[in-house]
Write a structure and sequence with these properties.
The protein has two helices and four strands, in the order αββββα. The protein is an alpha+beta fold and 51 residues long. The radius of gyration is 11 Å and the shape is globular.
Amino acid sequence: MGKQRRGRGIKKTPNWRGTCRLCGRTGVKLLWEKVIGTEKVKCCKICANQR
């Protein structure tokens, strides 16, 4: 069974790779969303799992 955040499925998502707005890492997958205030921000896996 395939995973949601790797392979063919993520390449169909526009702007799936770029710079994380929270930590500034470049060339990472931006598939996770985090709520900052009232705004949803796309971020990397490491920032999404931080509390």
